[in-house]
Amino acid sequence: MPTPVSWWRYLLVTAILVLFAGAFYIAAFGLPSAQVDAQDFVDLQQGSNPHEGFRRAHAKGFCIAGDFVSSGALAQYSNAPMFAATTTPLLGRISIAGNNPLAPDLKAPVRSLALSIATSSTEVWRTAMNTPPVMAVRNPQDFYQQLQALGNGTIQQFFAEHPESAAFRAWAADYQQTSSFATEVYNSINAFYLINDVGTQQAVRWQAVPRAAADHEIPAEFAGSDDALQNEFAARLAADPVIFDLVFTLAEPGDDEADPTVLWPDARQQIVAGQLVIRDMTPQADGACNAINFDPMVLPTGMAATADKILRARSAAYAESYRRRAREQ
Ligand code: HEM
Fold it and tell me: Whose CA is nearest to atom 17 of ligand 1?
């Protein structure tokens, strides 16, 4: 039976060991930051009064369908079947950021294009792209705080404390929204790898670049409606398909592929992989996109995720948002 003195010794030695282990951890990995998980993100994004049955972010949108007409120009970098010289059907969704499925189109600061391009049930490429080319922050914890700051009116202070937001702020200062979903440039923001037959890995980002010329004056016939951009897109599509070039930018050694706050230099090589040809649109409630989770980690053979931490956080949050709305529908 240990005496009271030996108990004290035992506790003292244990406390010293714990202190050493803690010091070692901090030296090796830095101070642990508060982790946020998918539940935290979706709780914050949906707000206190969730719109049941809807996506918890980018809640307002509509489904689109058409084709990805690949030129084959990317085939030397990736053996993804949709990058061969072939045409693959696409399903997608055009949306505005925010949790309100009835929000006025013209007030949304971010517009989005999501795609699902599948050559079989296992070879599927999903991407969800936004109008900004970079993020303001580079890790999920900071993105969570950015969303909090947007909500409580302290975003300018947040930016001042996050110098890595410089590229995002510079873009935002110059950016002018166009008068149509069909004339915006949509960006992957996060980088991915293309992988070819011999296993060579090439880091890339991509953009959907509109074929139609942009202007910034919304026609009067649409301007008064909360659904101005949806109505404009419908009128445009009734006349002609809406076409985007799918443009890939190739990183060079030294470009950081895991940091979504940094733009790569303008001089980087670009390859037009083909055209996104949008022929149809349907309301999301009864459209094919309703059942799709545009998880950016759903990738075919010949593509892989980089180490960008935001990608994992997105994947987990989109799944949580999907689970919530699927339960409610
Ligand atoms: C940690 C960072 C991010 C989080 C936590 C987050 C969270 C979410 C959530 C919860 C949804 C709803 C998903 C659903 O129910 O289907 C969503 C949708 C979306 N997000 Fe993000 N997001 C993040 C970053 C980004 C970035 C960097 C982009 C652009 C490259 C992006 C583009 C989109 C788009 C386009 C949609 C709508 C997809 C659709 O039409 O279904 N997000 N996001």
Answer: 57
Q: What is the C-alpha separation between 321 and 319, in angstroms, rounded?
A: 5
Question: Which residue from 144, 143, 187 is spatially nearest to 164, judged by alpha carbons?
Answer: 143
Residue 312, CB-side half-sphere exposure with 13 Å CA sphere: 11
Phi, psi for residue 101 in degrees, rounded to 5: -70, -5
316 phi, psi to nearest 5 deg:
-65, -40
- For residues 220-243, average pLDDT: 98
Q: How many whole angstroms from 1 Cα to the centroid of ligand 1?
A: 60
Q: Can you give the pTM of this predicted structure?
A: 0.91
Alpha helix (H) ranges present in 162-276?
Answer: 166-174, 220-223, 228-239
d(CA 27, CA 158): 27
How does 35-64 read in b/e, with b if 16+ C-beta sit within 10 Å? ebebebbbbbbbeeebbeebbbbbbbbbbb
Q: Is 134 in the pocket of ligand 1 (CB under 6 A)?
A: no
For residue 11, the model assigns a pLDDT of: 52
d(CA 287, CA 62): 8
Q: Which two tokens stand for residue 120?
A: 């079989």
Structure tokens at 175: 């950016």
Could you give the CA distance from residue 179 to residue 232 in angstroms, rounded to a whole number?
A: 8
Phi then psi for residue 59, to 5 deg, are -70, -30
Predicted confidence at residue 31, as pLDDT, reads 41
Measured in whole angstroms, the distance separating CA 1 from the mean position of its chain's CA atoms is: 61
pLDDT in tens, 34-70: 689 999 999 999 999 999 999 999 999 999 999 999 9
Q: Angle, nearest 10°, between helix axes 140-152 and 38-46?
A: 20
Ligand 1 centroid distance, CA of 4 (Å): 58
